[in-house]
Amino acid sequence: MTSTSKNYAELEDLLNRLGAPIGPSECHGFICAQLCTSAEPDSRSWRECLGAEGEEAEATLRRISDASGEDLASTEFTFEPMLPSEEATLAVRADALAAWCRGFLFGLGNGGLTEAGLSGDCRELVEDIERISRARVELEQGEEFALLELVEFVRVGAMTVFQELKPMRTPSQGQPSLH
Hints:
- By secondary structure, the protein is an all-alpha fold.
- The protein has one domain: Up-down Bundle (Four Helix Bundle (Hemerythrin (Met), subunit A)), CATH 1.20.120.740.
- Helices cover 64% and strands 0% of the residues.
- The chain contains 7 helices and no strands.
- The chain has helices at residues 3-18, 24-37, 43-50, 55-73, 90-110, 120-134, 144-165.
- Helix 5 (90-110) packs across helix 6 (120-134) and helix 6 (120-134) crosses helix 7 (144-165).
- The protein is globular and about 45 Å long.
- The termini are far apart.
């Protein structure tokens, strides 16, 4: 089991126990958008938007947020949207990708980002992510490559938004600051 699928299962279990109104992919999209728009993810937003309260919930979300932040900032391009494992059907994985995109868009808006805050290229990426979030993708079993292309597009798009909003810093510059 990869760390992404382990985190997916752990987050799914936590959200189910909390009776949260969203699933793990949408939650992860929200967390990633928070990382793009905030110097530090806001646990108050986790409580209000995700229905996640309590020490266990905050610790799990903090750990996933920290790992996702490292992956988004990595020069190794290790970031991956949190989606069900490849054992899940294509339909389940496609629905989860759309949910991840919805969470990401909600998180960007919740973080106060407007279209004016993005370059033209980045704005187009966000618009494409919005289209994916609304799509009901009907894939046949043999069309896994099409889903993989969409996942890769979203993966690179999220890293691009992160890099635009959180410019890379050299180690001597320290942590990003909010202006």
